[in-house]
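dumping this here before i forget
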Amino acid sequence: MRYFTIQPPAELKPYVRFYWVLEHELKPDHSSYIYRSVADACTELVFHYRSSFNELNGKNEQSPSLSGIQFQTTQYRRFITTESFGIFGAYIYPFAVPYFFNIPSSQTSNLAFDFDTFLSRPGQELEEQIMVAGNNHKRAEILSAFLIARLRQNVLKDDRIAVAIRNVIHNKQYRTVAQLADAYNLSARQFDRKFKESAGFSPKTYMRLVRLQDALTQYNADKTLTQIALECGYYDQSHFIHDVKEFTGYHPGFYFSGKAEGTEYRNT
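structure:
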């Protein structure tokens, strides 16, 4: 399993967290690989440039999964392939969605589309260019040019909320919605409305998603589940267990055991 990230150009850094690559050579004694995506506070553009996946539903029935966009989500999804694969993705702050795609973030939560459906001809052309690119750094250049061209058609309207969302993701010093609202000189009601417009979820739900991602970065760390829960801001063990089960489909004891499907890349 090979996983690495590529930084976007300076003009995109306020909007794109990073590009990522996941590659895997299926061993002869393994007939398939299951990739599991978990609930996430950011939006992802995903390109399957080597082989394809099918999505598994609750009954393990399969349907084709195409390259496309997965918006910020409270849901986990499962995908299966029977071939070695390569995936290139972009991890985008949710407040950037309106500036790249001319649609409010509040209207996109938990949605996913293939590029042809979502962007029509421009999406088709972008996917074709990404697929035939010689390497992943070239893919990053192609996607950067596409996103910069769309970004330059718009101007960020309320930088306070963008800063607030980035602070929730990166700084983690705020533990309540009231603290966040006060920090940006807004009433709790104003802040809740503006935040949901830009992030796609209420501040409370969004902070739950970010807290989950913080916890999952502790995968394979030499810490107890109690230590992980406390360090990531959970009030108690029961809240930690509830969120991990809801957003990943696993009890944290199993998720952090190393046996959960689709978690191998977190150790690369």
